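---------- Forwarded message ----------

FYI, see the Phage conserved hypothetical protein C-terminal domain-containing protein record below. Original note from H. follows.
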Amino acid sequence: MGMVIHDDFWAACQAMPEKQRAPFLYALANYRFTKEEPKGSPPWLPTFIALKQRIDMGDEASERGRKMAQARWGKKQAQAPAKQDAEASAKQDAQAYAQADAQASNNSDAEDEVEIEVEIPPYIPPMLSSLQDAPFWLQCLGALNEFLGTTYTTMPEKCRHMLERCAGGYTVEQVRSMIAYKRDEWQGTKFSKRLTPNTLFSPDHFEQYMHEAKGEEKEAEAYAAYDQF
């Protein structure tokens, strides 16, 4: 086992007169390996007594570490056979399960798996003809789908709230007339792509479009009445 010369050991040595350094270092090394203390009363004896306690503490710590390492190693050695037995047993079980699965697969009496096909019904978008008892906003959406040939299934929440508030003020037929009016107005223009629930039922535009359609309808009625004369 070696010996460590700590920084404070060397600092104490450097503080001594040069002729005392070698005997002091030799005394420390000799005590470390033989536990023999220096004889007589050399001038560096008080320093030696203080530092030898550091050497004793280091030896005690090293001995404790050695015993702990031996204890751990002995425990590992004792556990090794048990661990090996457990691994061997697990390996045998895995092999047995694999053989059983192979035999079951090759058994002529084994049941064949049957795939069951589940028929998914075709998607049907909401249409006005099937929504008589549905909420007003959904009936309006069905009217838009039927009139424009679209397949919308829902609309933004703000549009639904808008139509729910207007449920008592307008009928589905009036909404259908508005859709027809905007279709005729925008068809063939860049605005045709705005024929969507987001635009037609928007809180910012819905009532405006309804008034426009109503005004157009009154104007058409006035022309029709004029033609009768």
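H. also flagged this: Residues 7-103 form one domain.
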